[in-house]
Write a structure and sequence with these properties.
By secondary structure, the chain is α+β, with helices and mostly antiparallel strands. It contains 9 helices and 10 strands. The strands form 3 sheets. A 5-stranded mixed beta sheet has the order 4-10-9-6-7, with helices on one face. Strands 3-5-8 form a 3-stranded antiparallel beta sheet, covered by helices on one side. It has a two-stranded antiparallel sheet with strand order 1-2.
Length: 309
């Protein structure tokens, strides 16, 4: 099954990453006005040479001023010299989890400390952790712990900052990326699909024999899930994947759950599930990232990081 199909609503924006927001003191920027609507985005690239140079000199979440040192190592062979959140550009950075995970690309850095902060819609800090960033570039997974459950229908602003200047949180030397999270809920039909996937025995066989009534009666009662699985079986490029999934019930469950999440436009659980399958099924990971304009990061390693201090 191609996850690309279920993120085609990102298609018109696929060449652009989520824009960086600038945080001032303790007050986060205002959240998107309409989480449930897809907004139009228009980008104008500057023709002025000085303006192009100004944009090219920016790193992470802020501009690098003249004479300001950077803890991000410059690499002439790579254009990835800034932090990047692996999220779509649309207002659809949604999660259904109390404790979701975020995926961020971190370039090679000499910083010895990084800070991950989450604030609610009123600017109140609800979570703060500090950890040692990886020495090599790659994608890190940041998880909000069980002690900080996010509330349904609430928006949260998050920020990851490399402390290039460890003594001054607001220093221009520090590099950061930030974004918004909305915790939402599945509708009744989507929840029925997810419950069926989680409860079905021998789920790997569900991909091949969804019509078997004795084992998978819940599938027969959820037409949309049947349609998803039918599309999987009819996709020629997925036949090899199906053969491999039949050997692993755990991987099969992660994959079919991801189909349900993607069809419901729930980004964070989709990428989390597919990340867990990335070693065994790298094509699925690459296809998902490419579907939202993140094709430049499909070959980056998922790093074993990061433990809070």
């Amino acid at each position: 099954m191609s996850l690309l199909k279920y993120f085609q609503f990102f298609g018109t924006l696929a060449a652009v990453l989520s824009p960086t927001l600038v945080t001032v003191a303790s007050l986060p920027p205002q959240p998107p006005a309409q989480w449930e609507s897809q907004r139009e985005v228009s980008l104008k690239f500057p023709d002025d040479t000085k303006e192009r140079e100004r944009i090219n000199s920016s790193l992470g979440g802020g501009s690098r001023g003249i004479g300001v040192a950077s803890c991000i190592k410059e690499d002439e062979t790579s254009e990835k010299t800034s932090l990047k959140a692996l999220v779509p550009i649309t207002d659809s950075s949604r999660t259904i989890a109390e404790n979701p995970s975020l995926f961020v690309f971190v370039p090679e850095t000499t910083a010895k400390s990084a800070k991950f902060i989450v604030r609610d819609n009123n600017g109140k800090e609800v979570y703060h952790s500090e950890f040692v960033p990886p020495e090599t570039s790659g994608i890190v997974k940041l998880t909000i712990p069980e002690t900080v459950p996010l509330e349904v229908k609430q928006e949260y602003h998050w920020e990851l900052k490399l402390m290039c200047n460890p003594t001054n949180y607001f220093s221009e030397e520090n590099k950061y990326v930030d974004g918004w999270l909305l915790r939402t809920q599945l509708n009744s039909e989507q929840q029925k699909q997810l419950d069926c996937v989680r409860q079905a025995p021998d789920l790997q066989n569900l991909l091949q024999f969804p019509e078997e009534p004795s084992l998978f009666s819940c599938v027969r009662q959820t037409p949309e899930l049947q349609n998803l699985l039918n599309t999987v079986r009819q996709s020629p490029e997925q036949r090899e994947l199906l053969e491999r999934l039949k050997q692993s019930p755990e991987e099969a469950k992660l994959y079919v759950e991801a189909l349900v999440y993607a069809n419901a436009k729930i980004w964070h659980e989709t990428i989390d599930n597919i990340a867990q399958l990335s070693d065994a099924h790298p094509n699925e990971w690459q296809e998902l990232l490419a579907s939202v304009g993140l094709e430049d990061f499909t070959q980056e390693k998922l790093l074993d990081c990061c433990t809070a201090n």
